[in-house]
Design goal:
Largest sheet: 8 strands, mixed
Structural class: mainly beta
CATH topology: Immunoglobulin-like
CATH class: Mainly Beta
CATH superfamily: Intracellular proteinase inhibitor BsuPI
């Protein structure tokens, strides 16, 4: 599924929902989830980069979402060719617990972190263009992923 929406600034956002159909209280498929990533278009070298993913139920019914303990969310930064530079969950120890979360009509979940412009080995990254994705890990193997957004790091 691909969902489009306009943000207040007029930018077009796209969400991909991969391998998962959320269920409402009656067990019917619900397709009214908006999943989006917020990341600045550009920052200076050394400045922490705020990253936020938001998932909102835009239907008129509750939606049940089974989150796994992988952790429930993640952020991934890659180079333009797709090579992974940094993953928020890299090296973290997470308990494998399944949590069922019910989003009421209009309710949203938000997860936020900051990327310190370091790679998975802890080394500072150079200036340049990077791509950022947000991920929600649902009951394996299902997950929600945002389309990548460009991030420019300038000297």
């Amino acid at each position: 599924m691909v969902r489009y929406w306009l943000w207040p600034a007029g930018l077009l956002g796209i969400a991909l929902i991969v391998g998962y159909t959320p269920k409402d209280g009656m067990g019917a498929g619900v397709s009214s989830l908006e999943f989006r990533l917020e990341v600045p278009a550009g920052v200076r070298v050394g400045t922490p980069v705020p990253l936020t993913v938001k998932l909102q139920n835009t239907s008129n019914r509750p939606v049940e979402l089974p989150f796994s303990g992988r952790p429930a969310y993640d952020f991934v930064v890659t180079k333009p060719g797709g090579l992974e530079v940094w993953r928020w969950s890299h090296g973290q120890v997470v308990q494998a617990i399944l949590e069922l979360k019910t989003l009421k009509s209009g309710e949203a979940l938000e997860f936020a972190e900051a990327w310190g412009q370091r790679d998975n080995e802890g080394k500072p990254v150079p200036s340049g263009t990077y791509w950022v994705r947000g991920v929600l890990n649902l009951e394996p193997p299902a997950k929600l992923e945002t389309e990548p957004k460009s991030l420019s790091i300038s000297p």
